[in-house]
Amino acid sequence: MHRKSAYILFLAVLGLLVIGIVMLFSTSAFARDSHGDVYFFIRRQAIWFGIGLAICILAALIDYHFWQRTWWLWFGLAMVALALCYFPHIGMRLNGSRRWIALGPVTFQPSELAKLAAIVFLAAWFARREEAGSNLLFGIILPLAIVGLPAALVLGEVDLGTSALFVTTAFVVMFVAGASPLWLGTISFAGLGGLLLVASRISERMGRLSAFLHPQNYKEDAGLQ
Asked: How far apart are CA 140 and CA 124, in angstroms?
């Protein structure tokens, strides 16, 4: 069963990679004008894919108890990295959002580390408290409160999409760990309503929604006739 699960996970990741490459290739038509090479984004993505694959293989070879013991280290690093996004000359402000850290020629998005740190934390939390799923305090409130710390920093960066994905990933891990589906569902609906309320207060997000619902009004901005 565990081997089959590994195959399913591998195919799911492979499918996401293929979809991502196809979607990235569709944007390459504009790469010639901005970077002089229609394959610029594909090449850069391939490099990072190779780096990520090497890191994944290395992480898979490490005993999982190491990640369980050191969850606090990765969680702390993620919190520090997310906080650095708000510091001038370190955090990059692009299109009204502070999502990236600039370290010389290298840019880094701390929310990616935060998502991994949250998963490692939740896995360690429920591994040590196998019966916590039926307990409201230890199965819902405390883990959500801890995961909510980096989620709040991501939301403050004005990154609603990553915030929603962050919380959704946490809920999935908690559900698999045995947390109450009723409480998770109730909190999910309340959180979705709050997220929509926040989005309605941000002009950039409403502009994106308007462009999605009425694309004909934005043809000239996209260079279309």
From this structure: 15
Evaluated on CA atoms 145, 72, 52, 15, the torsion sign reads: negative
Distance, CA of 213 to CA of 199 (rounded, Å)? 15
180 touches 139 (CB < 8 A): yes
The 3-state DSSP class for residue 39 equals: coil
Place of tokens 């299109």: 95
pLDDT digit string, tens, across residues 77-110? 999 999 988 887 788 777 667 788 877 777 888 8
**DSSP 8-state assignment for residue 87:** S
Determine phi and psi for 86, rounding to 5 degrees.
-90, -5
Q: Report domain extents, the chain.
A: 1-61, 65-218
How much is the pTM? Answer: 0.75
Q: How far apart are CA 38 and CA 175, in angstroms?
A: 43
Determine whether 88 is exposed, middle or buried from the number of CB atoms within 10 Å of its CB (0-12, 13-18, 19+).
exposed
CA 147 to chain centre: 13
- β-partners of residue 102 are 107
